[in-house]
Amino acid sequence: MLKKWLIEQINRYVSKVFVEVKPFKSFVDIKSLPSGYYQSFGSKNPDKFFYVIWLDHRGSGFFSNVSSVLCHLKIAKDNGMIPVIDFKNFPTLYNEKGQINHTSNSWEYYFKPVSEYSLDEVYQSKNVFFSSGLYPKGMSYSITENPGLFKIYSDAISLQPDIHRKVSEYSNQINFQDKVLGIHFRGQEQKYATGHSFPPTERQMFRYTDEIMKKYHMNKIFLVTEDIDYLNLFIKRYGDRVYYSDMFRTRKVNAYKLRPRKNHMYLLGKEVLVDTILLSKCTGLLCGDSNVSEMARFMNNKKYQFLYKIDNGINSNNPLIARHLYAFKKHLPPAYGGLIDKLSIIKKDK
C-alpha cells in the first residue's frame, strides 16, 4: 500500500510545472535551471537539491534513453544538483516485471547508480526537482555534438559487472589490437519508419566494405545487425573474417514486437549495449544514420581512424508512403528519384 501511495504522489506532483526557483538560491548555485517539477517529500537532506531524471514516455530506443540521461546529468552538474535516475516509477521499454540485478530500476539493469542516494531516500527528502521528462531543449540529438558530454559519460557512467564481463569476453575473442572494421548494418523497421533516415542497402555496404578492407588493410570485420539475412550475406562473402555477437536476430520482424524468451526486453537492451561498446573499440566504422552508430562514435571519442557514413535521405512522414518508399527507391539511380547514396568520410586528425 505504501509503495502504491508513493507512486501516486510522485505522478501527482510531476503533473505541475515548477518554475519558481528563488527559495533554493541560498544554498544551490543555479545557473540555468530548466522547466521541470518540484516537490518536498519529507525532512531528509535539507541542505541538498536532488534532480530526478525520468522519461515521460516509454517507447524510446535504448540509446535515445541514454542520450537523454547524459544531457540531464550535465544539467544536474551545471546546477550543483545531485542526480538520480528513476526508471522504476517511470518505466521504459526495457523494464521487466521481475527484478534484474536485484533492482526494478531499468537504468540499473545495465549501469551502476549515478549517485550514492537511493530512490527511497530521495523520496523522503526536502528538495526534489524532477526533470521535464523530455530531451533537453538546446541540446543536439547527435550526442557527439554536445560539448562536455563525454566527460560526463566518463565520470558518471559505469557498467554493471555482467555487462563488463560480456564485453571482455567478446573483446578477447576479437582482439581489437588487430585492424578491425566495425560495421553497423541497420535494417528491419528503419526501412519503413516515418521521418527517419533510410538505411544502407546490401550493395552499398558490400561496395564500401570492399573498399575499406583493401585501402586500410583490414583483416577482421565486427558486424552488428539485427537482421539474420544481412549476417548470412556477410558470412557468405567474407567468411571467417566476420565476427559477431549472439544478439537476438530476426527476419522481417521487429524484435521488440516479440516475446520469445524470458526477460526479452532487458536482453535486447543488454545486447545492443554490448555490441555498441564493441563497435566503439574498432579501428574504423562503416554505418548508416542511427542511434547505435552515433553512440559508438561518441564512446570512441574521436579515436576512429576513419568513419564512413552512408546517407540515403529521409523517409516520408506519411505512413502509407513510408511503408513502400525504400523498396521503390533502392532500385532507382539517385538522379531519377532513388536513394541519395551520399557518403561522408571522416578521418582521424594526424
Description of the structure:
- The strands form 2 sheets. This protein has a 6-stranded mixed β-sheet with strand order 7-6-5-8-9-10, sandwiched between helices. A 4-stranded mixed β-sheet has the order 1-4-2-3, with helices on one face.
- With 350 residues, the chain is α/β, with parallel strands linked by helices.
- The radius of gyration is 22 Å and the shape is globular.
- Helix 9 packs across helix 10.
- About 6% of the residues have low confidence.
- Helix 8 links the parallel strand 6 and strand 7.
- Helices cover 35% and strands 12% of the residues.
- The protein has 11 helices and 10 strands.
- The protein folds into 2 domains: 155 residues, no CATH class; 187 residues, Rossmann fold, CATH 3.40.50.11350.
Summed up:
This protein is α/β, with parallel strands linked by helices and 350 residues long. 35% of the residues lie in helices and 12% in strands.
> How large is the count of helical segments?
11
Strand content: 5-15%
Supply the CATH architecture of the largest domain.
3-Layer(aba) Sandwich
- Listing every helix as H and every strand as E from the N terminus to the C terminus, the arrangement reads HEEHEHHEHHEHEHEHEHEHE
Unreliable stretches, pLDDT < 50, 5 or more residues?
Answer: 13-33
Q: How many domains make up the coordinates? A: 2
What CATH calls the topology of the largest domain is: Rossmann fold
| Rg | 22 Å
Shape: globular
Mean pLDDT across all amino acids: 87
